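Problem 12. The chain below contains 129 residues. Write out its predicted structure in token notation.
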Amino acid sequence: MTGVEVGGESFDRDDNFDLAGYWREQAEAFLRSMLRAEVTIRLSPAGLRRLRHLADAPFVYAEALAAAGEPDGQGWVVTRLPVESVEVAYSQLLGLGPEVEVLDPPELRARLAEAARRSAALYLPTGQR
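Solution.
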């Protein structure tokens, strides 16, 4: 904006209108509209805790928790995660490193597997690269 002018129109705001609540609802609706894909992942206990810091919005983490199955013998859970795209999910899930295993979609699983191979190669002794 470069300027504001007062117009001649006015309105009466409803006394029950909750601007903060309305804004939260609109912001969440906007974020939800961006989440057009879904990935299935398997998370370690540490990965599940760290997921809250990588999810696009707080409701994404809550939905992933709600969708999580029972932990296996090592405490890992399988869940679904709504994401903007496979490309965005790739960037986000890289941050979880070995605390996440992508189960679906296959192209995301393959990309993360390749990233893991490339990362592991960086840490080989110099003569083994």
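Discussion. The chain has a mean pLDDT of 90. Students who got a different answer should revisit the alignment rule from Section 12.3.
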